[in-house]
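Appendix C: a fully annotated inverse folding record. The material below is reproduced so that readers can follow the format used throughout the book. The structure is listed first as tokens, followed by the designed sequence.
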């Protein structure tokens, strides 16, 4: 399962905060408990020594019975400290004594009792009945505060419920803080991700939020560098397009003069240089076609976002493209099949759409196998406000690594094959520019049964 960076950061922060909170609470409780335990033992020793002196005085004047009554009275009204025990030499409680602590046998030697950490023994003066012992059993430690009180169990249901509520509040508050922190850290990354995707599609309006650019951390520096990079790329690309546009325009006039000179040379040569003149005219025509395609590409890219809002009869336009392609197909020994749904309409420029689809169809005609037919289909997408146009040939297809690159400028899958077929590497680039100008999408895929299929998706007119 793939987890986003936001989820990883959020979960890490939240779990870390819970572990730290539990560790701090546990260590704090045990530190306080140990400190209180040492303090209590010291207080018990001081109090036990004072009680032992008083018990000896009472025993000397009132005897064992008086001592038992005094111990019993103290146990009944005792508020602080633990219960008092009055034991004989065999460790058996005498009248007035508090019960022995849980788990202690009814008769145990005082030497064994002195080793118990939950009992403090003080020797009293003996009489004819043997030695007496004054014992103080410390009160049990209070349970830890907060969610550590969950072990209080059924004896303290209210404390358990309060502990659960505190635990829930701690987890929720920690989760909210961690969510806000993770969102604060990952929001610029998400913006850069979206901006990178737009930049990859040729949209240089990256649109980084001002709050991100105003941050004072490394992410803000990265965002500002990304904006500058996008601006620099746009400047370079605009300069490249302007150069191509200027060169293309400037070459048109020399080409026209070269064609006129070739025609004059043909007449003056009286048939002696016809083959050379034919070659000159062929290469001149190829250069002229290349320049025309460059100018068309520049016009399509410049038209992005500034298309007319005319309603175009896409069904009729595609039927015209199919009829025109039949003439070129006949010379190549192939054919064209058109399956076009009626009533398909889009908004934009009919000329630009015709140029885009025509280039895809002509590319398919050049690469389909001889005696096969190129299939042109068009239909609405079920459940979507889009139309889909597909052009499928019966050729060898292209390597998978080239499926995205074939729409780039001057990209050729096979240089030798393109030279034989007269391709310039601009036809599919023109098609992509025309489709994108209409807010559409174009992609290619290899068909399992053989051939290449180019799919064009366009938004349908309302």
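Designed amino acids, in order:
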């Amino acid at each position: 399962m793939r987890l986003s960076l936001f989820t990883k950061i959020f979960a890490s922060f939240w779990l870390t905060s819970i572990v730290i909170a539990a560790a701090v609470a546990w260590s704090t409780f045990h530190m306080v408990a140990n400190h209180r335990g040492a303090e209590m033992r010291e207080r018990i020793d001081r109090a036990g020594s004072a009680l032992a002196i008083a018990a000896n005085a009472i025993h000397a004047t009132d005897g064992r019975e008086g001592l038992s009554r005094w111990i019993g009275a103290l146990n009944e009204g005792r508020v602080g400290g633990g219960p008092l025990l009055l034991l004989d030499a065999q460790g058996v409680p005498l009248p007035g004594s508090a019960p022995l602590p849980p788990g202690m046998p009814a008769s145990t030697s005082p030497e064994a009792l002195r080793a118990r950490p939950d009992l403090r023994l003080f020797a009293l003066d003996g009489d004819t009945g043997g030695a007496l012992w004054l014992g103080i059993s410390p009160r049990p430690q209070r349970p830890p505060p907060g969610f550590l009180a969950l072990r209080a169990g059924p004896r303290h249901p209210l404390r358990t419920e309060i502990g659960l509520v505190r635990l829930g509040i701690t987890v929720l508050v920690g989760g909210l803080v961690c969510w806000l922190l993770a969102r604060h850290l990952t929001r610029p990354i998400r913006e850069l991700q979206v901006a990178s995707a737009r930049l990859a599609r040729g949209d240089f309006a990256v649109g980084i939020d001002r709050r991100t650019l105003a941050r004072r951390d490394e992410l803000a520096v990265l965002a500002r560098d990304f904006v500058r990079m996008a601006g620099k790329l746009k400047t370079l690309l605009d300069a490249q397009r302007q150069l191509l546009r200027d060169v293309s325009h400037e070459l048109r006039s020399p080409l026209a003069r070269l064609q006129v000179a070739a025609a004059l040379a043909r007449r003056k040569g009286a048939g002696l240089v016809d083959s050379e003149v034919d070659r000159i005219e062929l290469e001149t025509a190829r250069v002229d076609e290349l320049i025309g395609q460059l100018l068309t590409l520049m016009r399509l890219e410049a038209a992005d976002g500034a298309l007319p809002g005319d309603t175009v009869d896409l069904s009729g336009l595609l039927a015209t493209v199919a009829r025109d392609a039949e003439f070129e197909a006949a010379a190549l020994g192939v054919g064209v099949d058109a399956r076009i749904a009626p009533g398909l309409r889009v908004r934009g420029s009919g000329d630009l759409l015709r140029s885009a689809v025509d280039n895809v169809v002509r590319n398919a005609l050049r690469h389909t196998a001889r005696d096969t037919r190129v299939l042109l289909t068009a239909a609405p997408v079920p459940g979507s406000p889009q139309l889909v146009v597909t052009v499928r040939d019966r050729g060898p297809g292209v390597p998978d690594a080239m499926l995205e690159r074939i729409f780039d400028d001057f990209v050729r899958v096979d240089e030798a094959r393109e030279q034989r077929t007269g391709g310039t590497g601009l036809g599919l680039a023109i098609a992509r520019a025309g489709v994108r100008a209409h807010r559409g999408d174009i992609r290619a895929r290899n068909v399992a049964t053989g051939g290449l299929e180019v799919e064009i998706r366009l938004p349908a007119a309302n």
